[in-house]
Structure formats: structure tokens, C-alpha cells
């Protein structure tokens, strides 16, 4: 469906189209449509703009990713459908592997997502291995790759489930998430939660990492930036914004 740019909901409708096409391609599950709709509702409440709180979280996330020894980017169906190119660019920028991880078990869909990421320029895409799993999780998302999430110290998990964000922390890892709902278990259980739309947040995160790299910041400087992050405070700022806008 071609949406005219003059349409007042152009960006939002375009995003819906990406998710719908993701289902057609076997990348996104039908359940992902529901999850996207829930997120879209919160985006309306946030004014469909990247807030000051989100920008602060993005700066902290950029610093933490650059400090990581083994950063990994987790990819599910919705994330792949919405911004495959951005996640690939982030992967290359950080020299971090992309690892496919989905809630609804489907080897076929895992391969579809992997091929989709490769078509968008990915060089290092890992699949979960049922011989390896993280603790404190019972769903399909417990299975991980030994060269990816299993040994990662920092995991970037856009559009994540709250149970795995919590499990990652319990496994001694730091989790950076993107979630439009500041009250979700995902946001509440993350090291850094970016309350923003993935289509806006990922490009900003890439630009921030490039900026820090260009400035050639030391580990001490990056630690200072990350050290100022207060996830609970950022989430409260997002909730306050929603209350103000409604």
C-alpha cells in the first residue's frame, strides 16, 4: 500500500506497513502485530517525538556499548522488520554480532530473519543453539549462541520481553532496551531503557556512538557518562511527559 506523504499519520502508517510486510515475509509473528499496536498507542501518548529523557538514555547507552568487551545485538521479528539496516549498521559500528532470538519457537522464522538481516548487509548473524541456555528463563528465549549472548557482557535488546530483560540481568549481563511503555517490565528491568520508537532511537544511537568515537573518548570519560544514568529517574521523566501531554 502506497501512503501519501501528505497523510497526517504518514510515519505511523508506514511503520504499520513494515510490520505487516514482516508477517508476509515470515519474519514477524502475528503476535508481533499486537505488540506493535500496544507500542504505537504509547507513542501517541509521548507525542511521537524523542523526549529529552530518551536522548539522555541514548547517550548513556552509547557509552555503555563502547565500554562493553563483548556487546551483542539481539534481534526479534519486529526489530528486523522495522529497522534491519539500522541494526546492521550498529553491528558493524560496534563490531558486535547480531543474534536472532524469538519468543514463539520457529526454526523457519529464525532462518528467515537471519536471511533478511544478511540481505540488509549483515556480516555476522548468529542463531540460538539448544545446547546452550541462560538461567532464570523457561521460554524459547533461554536458548542462546555460545559466541553471542552467552558470553556477552552487554546485550542490546530492542523490543524485548520483560522476562528476558530481567533474566539477562540475573545472569550478570547489562541489558539496553527500547520500549515505548515506561511502565513495562522490560523498561523497569533494564540497565538502560530507551523510551522511544525504534525507528527514531536506533539512528540517534548510531549518531551518538559515532560522535563519541570521533571525540576519541577515554574509558574514564565513557564511564562517567554511563555512571550518571539513573534508569528509574529516566522512566519517571517519561511517565511525567505522558501525564503532561494528556
Description:
The structure is a single chain. With 246 residues, the protein is an alpha/beta fold. It has a single domain (52-245), classed as 3-Layer(aba) Sandwich (Rossmann fold). Helices cover 54% and strands 12% of the residues. It has ten helices and eight strands. It has helices at 10-24, 30-45, 52-67, 77-94, 107-119, 162-170, 185-188, 198-215, 219-227, 231-245, and strands at residues 71-75, 98-100, 125-126, 129-133, 143-144, 154-158, 174-178, 192-194. Strand 1 (71-75), helix 4 (77-94) and strand 2 (98-100) form a beta-alpha-beta unit. Helix 3 (52-67) packs antiparallel against helix 9 (219-227), helix 3 runs antiparallel to helix 10 and helix 4 (77-94) crosses helix 5. The protein is globular. The chain starts with 9 loop residues before the first helix and ends with a helix. The model has no long low-confidence stretch (mean pLDDT 92).
Q: What is this structure, in a nutshell?
A:
The protein is an alpha/beta fold and 246 residues long. The chain has one domain (52-245): Rossmann fold (3-Layer(aba) Sandwich). It contains ten helices and eight strands.
Tell me the layout of helices and strands.
Layout lengths: L9 H15 L5 H16 L6 H16 L3 E5 L1 H18 L3 E3 L6 H13 L5 E2 L2 E5 L9 E2 L9 E5 L3 H9 L3 E5 L6 H4 L3 E3 L3 H18 L3 H9 L3 H15 L1
Parallel strand pairs: 1-2, 1-6, 2-3, 6-7, 7-8
Antiparallel strand pairs: 4-5
Amino acid at each position: 500500500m502506497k501512503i501519501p506523504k501528505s497523510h497526517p499519520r504518514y510515519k505511523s502508517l508506514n511503520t504499520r506497513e513494515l510490520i505487516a510486510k514482516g508477517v508476509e515475509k515470515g519474519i514477524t509473528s502475528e503476535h508481533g502485530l499486537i505488540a506493535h499496536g500496544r507500542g504505537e498507542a504509547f507513542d501517541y501518548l509521548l507525542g511521537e517525538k524523542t523526549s529529552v529523557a530518551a536522548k539522555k538514555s541514548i547517550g548513556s547507552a552509547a557509552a555503555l556499548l563502547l565500554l562493553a568487551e563483548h556487546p551483542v545485538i539481539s534481534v526479534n521479528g519486529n526489530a528486523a522488520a522495522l529497522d534491519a539496516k539500522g541494526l546492521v549498521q550498529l553491528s558493524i559500528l560496534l563490531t558486535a554480532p547480531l543474534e536472532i532470538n524469538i519468543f514463539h519457537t520457529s526454526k523457519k522464522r529464525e532462518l528467515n530473519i537471519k536471511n533478511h538481516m544478511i540481505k540488509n548487509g549483515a556480516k555476522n548473524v548468529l542463531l540460538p543453539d539448544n545446547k546452550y541456555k541462560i538461567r532464570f528463563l523457561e521460554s524459547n528465549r533461554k536458548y542462546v549462541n555460545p559466541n553471542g549472548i552467552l558470553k556477552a557482557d552487554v546485550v542490546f535488546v530492542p523490543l524485548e520481553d520483560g522476562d528476558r530483560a530481567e533474566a539477562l540481568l540475573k545472569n550478570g549481563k547489562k541489558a539496553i532496551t527500547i520500549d515505548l511503555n515506561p511502565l513495562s517490565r522490560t523498561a523497569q528491568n533494564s540497565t538502560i531503557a530507551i523510551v522511544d520508537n525504534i525507528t527514531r532511537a536506533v539512528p540517534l544511537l548510531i549518531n551518538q556512538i559515532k560522535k563519541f568515537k570521533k571525540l576519541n573518548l577515554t574509558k574514564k570519560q565513557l564511564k562517567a557518562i554511563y555512571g550518571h544514568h539513573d534508569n528509574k529517574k529516566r522512566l519517571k521523566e517519561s511517565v511525567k511527559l505522558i501525564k503532561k501531554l494528556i
